[in-house]
From TrEMBL:
It comes from Adhaeribacter pallidiroseus. The chain crosses the membrane at residues 405-425. GO terms for molecular function: DNA binding. Keywords: Membrane, Signal, TPR repeat, Transmembrane, Transmembrane helix. InterPro entries: Sig_transdc_resp-reg_C-effctor, TPR-like_helical_dom_sf, TPR_rpt, WH-like_DNA-bd_sf. PROSITE patterns: TPR. The lineage of its organism: Bacteria, Pseudomonadati, Bacteroidota, Cytophagia, Cytophagales. Residues 1-22 form the signal peptide. This is HTH luxR-type domain-containing protein. SUPFAM superfamilies: C-terminal effector domain of the bipartite response regulators, TPR-like. Pfam families: TPR_12 (PF13424). GO terms for biological process: regulation of DNA-templated transcription. The keyword Cytoplasm does not apply. TPR repeats lie at residues 124-157, 164-197.
Amino acid sequence: MNRILTLCSVIIICFCWFKAPAQNKTLVDSLRRVIARPLADTVKVIALGELAWEYHLHDKKEALRYAHQELELARKINFNRGIGLGYMDKGVTYSYHREYTKAIDHYLQALPFLKKANKPLLVALMHYNIAVAYSKFEASEKAIAYFLKAVDLLEKQKDWANVSQSYTGIANSYNTLKQFSNALNYHRKAVQVAKTHADYEMLAVALTDFSGTYNTLFDTNHQKAYLDSSLNCLYQVQQLLHKKLVRNPIMQPSVTFNIANNYFQQEKYLQAIPLIQQALVLARPVNLEAAICQGHTLLGKIYTRQKKYALAEKHLRQALPIALKTSPLFAADTYQALQDWAANQEKFREAYQYQREWATLKDSIYNREKVEIAEKLGLQYETEKKQARITTLEQENQWERQLQIFYLILAGLGLLLSGTVIYLLRLKQKIFTQKANLLQEAQEKAYLRQELAEQQREKLREELLLQAELNALREEQFQKEIDYKERELTTNVLLLEQQSAFLQKVKVRLATLLPQANGLTTDLQKVCKLIDNRLGNEQDFEKFMLHFEKVHPDFFNHLDQVALNGLTPADQKLSAYIRMNLSTKEMAHLLNVEPKSIQMARYRLKQKLNLPEETDLISFILQL
């Protein structure tokens, strides 16, 4: 059966957004002719299952219809393998369409029939599929338990590819639980199994997921060694690709992009850019939309940081429609990158619009996560309830078997033991009633615990929201104070500049009048001297410096720490004006000197600060 063979191998494929081909029309027509012919019912069951498999990717309704027909016909002829496969086909369809609760329910129903049909490999794969579905809900403990069962069964079948993938699933589940030591141990097991059995396709998958866990460790602990370990895993995959030991067409662009992303996290943009461009070229032929979207977004972020705004905009505009179509998370990331791009250019209106789009998407993602959490809790409750029911039924079945044996003995003893039989029947009823009462009580307690946990989570969420709003208000108030002080400081400097310019003009005008003043020459000279004294007066600047220190605290302390022999008041003035981003001409007016003198003063200040020749003085001071 094609779908069983595919199920055995599909586990090794990386999760991605690579579009699957449409169903095989020739095969579908052939299978429909099979179920229309007067053939054995078992053959028709198999054909119906194959039809369900052909439709499960593209037409959920049609796939479920054929799987239901498969299941009904198999039940009718008491065909255990067909019943198990019918439930399995329904589960696979629900799983592909993200209805994991229903998928788990059908996988669990498939298990006893596949066991009766003596299909140990399919039983193992059902455990694996259940584990994968639980991992989608981030029910990691349950996922790990089923992965371990799958490993035990798969090892007996010597299915080493899926053993390796199961170890990878366990590692990823521990990664979700932030139990990184366990995660790394199981990643190593997955890699070792793949290497031992020379399964290079599975080795590439195991190493890629291993790299992802190291990235999570870096995000958590910010230690560069984790990025180096991640890159080492990706380089091993790249070597397998270069040797043509791995032929998965989506692996090359995925690995190339992951390497580029590692360089981006280390701010090594010159190494990252060509790798991203290479990943985009490789991703387009296989329509790997996730890599295409993230590649353009990452290039946009890099070019924004490099102030190459035109290139940044080009790539972000290319990423946005793909992100909106592919994933809300990708769209939120792209809008945030566009917001940074606009803000860096002081296009605050555009930045605000992108921020609103980002906030809307974050709200949408948050609501979706709430729904998934609710589904997860419902699934856990239903599973626990079903497990309790199964346990009760097994106990009852065991008890019934014991009673049947006992009844056979009683039949031989005849009427003499009839009283004992009646007593045992009453005892059985009493025990059954007690078990039912205990089960109901346990269910009620579980429901109450669930309600209490939900209330506590809601209270915590409200507290976090209130704290976030308070922090935002504080940040906004602080920013307003900074903006006000910046405007006040700039206004004072402009007033000083206007005053100095005016006095300079008066001085020049008086100087032209001196030859014609006759008896007023002495008085005019005194006025000129007063103007010179005013232009050189330090009192106004001291007030300015006091105000400047309030806006930029510790600025001069930082300068003094860098300077070799300390700074003069003139050096401090020049540094303050540079920090305010004044032009050379404006500084010359304020200091009553020629622009060339400002350039010389900047050169001397750079020497005092012991800055390398390639370091720009203005950029250095603006960063303090």
